[in-house]
Amino acid sequence: MLGTGIMALADYLRLPEIYQSYGDTNVDRLTNPDLYKDAGRVPVNAFLDSMTFLGDIATDIPAVGADYVKAIRDGEDLSLFSDQGKDLASSLITNFTGLPSLSVDNPMVDVSLTQDLLSDTQRTIDSKYEPEFQKIAGEAYNYVDSVMPTFSTFAVNNPNKTIADYQAMEDELFNKTFDDMFNKNLSSQYQQDFNDLRSQSSINKFGYDVFNQDIRGSDLFGPGLRKFTLGDVSGTDIPLKYASEGEYFLPFMEYEGPNKEDLERLTFMTEVGAGIPAAVRGIGKRFMRNQDTISPDLDDAIREYMRD
Prior knowledge:
Distance between the termini: 46 Å
Largest sheet: none
Order of helices and strands: HHHHHHHHHHHHH
Oligomer: single chain
């Protein structure tokens, strides 16, 4: 059983694939110096990653304290979650348990709230652009009037058609001409104004932009947690480098074998095996980095959940 477990672990860590990447035969692999260099780099990189993580936390802690002080001064809610985070958490609980949402006016639970906001936005923007619509409609009508044949000519050339067919042809040409003129001259600005008002209305109503698809981990958390960047030096644009993510603290510690992705994954698993902090970093960094969006898997899941 022990041997079976060891083999299963080796397969999970893709050790056979890593080994085989160093040559076509066992002789090639065993005489390849990169194999031994990379084997030595794995534990060292795992150690460097762990030390970087501790430094990451050390720079975040003062930012957490400063964030709480500012939140207290501004009279901000000191809960762990932001308005968006509360609504997301409440909607998950509601859908899994059937209980009412813990947060009121939750657009992730009551989709009519979002639909009403969209309808109001559409009416407001359409009202603003009504003069432009009328202008384009007039130009489109003049164009159609100048190119459409008379009904008598149409009837001669289309003996099996009726006046309803003629009117349908005229309407189709008008709609196409209007759409072409709108798309050429007005569509871009119209869409920008619509999106801007939609976002601002959402922020005014819910406290966040429910239509923003680039959800960041920090968007979901309240004072303190949002300052745990777990990916850069807090308050700066200086990124921290982790070998397990393909970024090397020491350039000469970069893996030389062709299967770098599995070696980086092995580095992370070595960190996890050495203690909880590595796992916290690996998970937390994906959820709470300020400059990056949520991990693709979670991002996709949230988007699909919100669409539903």
